[in-house]
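Notes from hallway chat w/ T.B., transcribed later so I don't forget. T.B. wanted the structure written out for a chain they're using in a teaching module, and asked if we could keep both sequence and structure tokens in one place. Agreed to drop them here.
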Amino acid sequence: MYCYQRIKDLREDKDKSQKEIASLLEISQQHYSLYEKGERELPMHHFITLAKYYNVSLDYLAGLTNTFKPLN
């Protein structure tokens, strides 16, 4: 699974809108949408913010593992 699919799935599992997550990242909804479509690479600082927000490991968020591990 690619990162962009994982961030979309996590957002939908939390019943959040793109606009809400974009606000968390302090970017526009249109900009965030590009991350979910895989049309723009997610910067590391946003990657870390999302991992903390969803309480998941960076490996899980990146799609490198399917084993859910919450952050310590």
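Follow-up for T.B.: The radius of gyration is 11 Å. Might be a good example for the class.
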